[in-house]
Amino acid sequence: MGETLHTLGIDLPKLIAQTINFAIVMFVLWKWAYKPVLNMLELRREKIAESMTNADQVKQELANARTKSQEILNEAGTQGNKLIEEARTSAARILEQETQKAIATANDIIAKARQANEAELARMKTELRREVGRLVVSTTARVTGKVLTTDDQQRLAEETNRQLAAN
Predict the structure, then answer these.
(1) What angle (nearest 5°) sits at the alpha carbon of residue 33, between those of residues 30 and 35?
(2) pLDDT tens-digit profile of 3-62?
């Protein structure tokens, strides 16, 4: 076998030395290069897996947050509509109360105006009766040509007032 190796150009002691050198280089590279690279790749794989898990959790939390925000918006809309309806009801009630107050005030004003009108009418009738009585007495005195006594004047005025009251 020595001659076959020599014919092929292989020197056995050099081959053994190169094999030992290769084994040492391979051991050194495996120990200080290949193994740390594999460890680093494993750590990166774990970080990527953790990031994927975190991303899934974030997606789930985002979906939950969206659902919750939609529920809050719906609730706020419902409460807003309720408040608007309460405000409308309150406004209608206040409008009705104010309308009733205005009607009552208007009725009071009308009643006072009627009372004032009736009082003025009564005063005017009384004044008219006095004036008519005075005119009747004056006219009677002129027509008869005599001076009427106080009793005659009072009797004529009362009789005139009775006739006017009857009409």
Answers:
(1) 60
(2) 787 788 888 888 899 999 999 999 999 888 888 899 999 999 999 999 999 999 999 999
Report the distance separating Cα 154 and Cα 137, nearest Å. Answer: 9
Q: Is the dihedral of CA 57, 63, 66, 69 positive or negative?
A: negative
Give how far Cα 23 sits from Cα of 13, 20, 28, 38, Å: 15, 5, 8, 20
- Asked if 156 contacts 133 with a C-beta cutoff of 8 angstroms, the reply is yes
In angstroms, the CA 117 to CA 130 distance is 20
Q: Which amino acid is at 108?
A: D
Distances (CA, A) of 67 to 26, 79, 85: 58, 18, 27
DSSP 11: -
CA gap 129, 121 in Å, rounded: 12
DSSP 148: P
Contact 129, 136 (CB under 8 A): no
Tell me which DSSP letter residue 9 carries: T
What was the pLDDT predicted at 68?
96
pTM above 0.70, yes or no: no
pLDDT (0 to 100) of residue 139: 77
HSE-CB of 34 using CA atoms within 13 angstroms: 7
